[in-house]
Amino acid sequence: MIVLPDSALDALLAQDVPYGDLTTDSLGLAGRPATMRFAARAAMVLAGTEEAVRLIEKAGGRLTQVLPSGTAVEAGAVFLESDGPADALHRAWKVAQTLTEYASGIATRARRIVDAVPGVTVACTRKNFPGAKDLSVKAVMAGGAVMHRMGLSETLLVFPEHRAFLSGPPEAWIAELRRKAPEKKIVVEAGSVEEAIALAEAGADVIQLEKLPPEAARAVIEATRHLTPAPVVAPAGGVTEANAAAYAAAGCRLLVTSAPFFGQPADVKVTLQPA
């Protein structure tokens, strides 16, 4: 599935090659038959390969083989091959490579967290780089995670910054939210064990723990398990592959994280040579 429309891919190519490829054109390489191969320099989970193919095609190249997003590959594995005129492949080269590297980096980090917590849902936040949501969401899903929120329009998540404007007990505004959006779950962020328990007792469906350690998550789960229904306790802020298993061991079945979005891109080796 391609998530970036042709207009977006055209814009990426236009940014990189606005007035032709001065080097390739000046060397007289236009029209010479060539091949281009993408290979993983290290183990990774692929993402964005479909967009890379479309970029190559739009530049004038032809696909010969590709592995889909979501495929885990080992170091050295060739996952995309194309051929065509040398000038066409040179036009697509860096844009397609960089897009695949960044998307695969996200997918690989997401997969590592998912693999660390079997049976637990890993949900990524909307804190992807502005303007890169479509590809970031695709990469998260390629890694086996889900999206926590796509944006502000479809979910109820009450932050302390919202509560600063509210008066009265939490039971009152939680009841009002339930009246206005009866089909939605009410998610509330808490910054302490005590606050989390109070919000759960007030009727919140999901308690999002902001940067609280696994032992705090365990305390909230144990203190609220008697409620009917018991709230979902979801740690958020600082959840990584290094501590995800500890949160799962504490009883959390939903982990909220931004970690996949931040880190090194995957490393893709490109071989572009005469056919």
Molecular structure report:
Helix content is 40%, strand content 22%. It is elongated. β9 (186-190), α8 and β10 (206-210) form a beta-alpha-beta unit. The mean pLDDT is 97. The strands form four sheets. Strands 3-5-1-13 form a four-stranded antiparallel sheet, with helices on one face. Strands 8-9-10-11 form a four-stranded parallel sheet. The protein has a three-stranded parallel sheet with strand order 7-6-12. It is an alpha/beta fold and 275 residues long. It folds into two domains: 6-113 and 263-274, Quinolinate phosphoribosyl transferase, N-terminal domain (Aldehyde Oxidoreductase, domain 3, Alpha-Beta Complex), CATH 3.90.1170.20; 118-261, Aldolase class I (TIM Barrel).
Roughly what fraction of the amino acids lie in strands?
Answer: 15-25%
- Structural class, please? alpha/beta
| Average pLDDT figure | 97
Q: Could you say what the CATH topology of the largest domain is called?
A: TIM Barrel
Integer count of domains: 2
Please tell me how large the radius of gyration is.
23 Å
CATH level-4 homologous superfamily of the largest domain: Aldolase class I
Q: What separation lies between the terminal Cα atoms?
A: 29 Å
Summarize the structure.
The chain has two domains: 6-113 and 263-274, Aldehyde Oxidoreductase, domain 3 (Alpha-Beta Complex), CATH 3.90.1170; 118-261, Aldolase class I (TIM Barrel, Alpha-Beta Barrel), CATH 3.20.20.70. The chain is built from ten helices and 13 strands. It has helices at residues 6-16, 22-26, 49-59, 86-116, 133-142, 160-163, 170-180, 193-201, 214-224, 244-249; strands at 33-40, 44-45, 62-66, 72-73, 78-85, 121-124, 146-147, 156-158, 186-190, 206-210, 232-236, 254-257, 268-274.
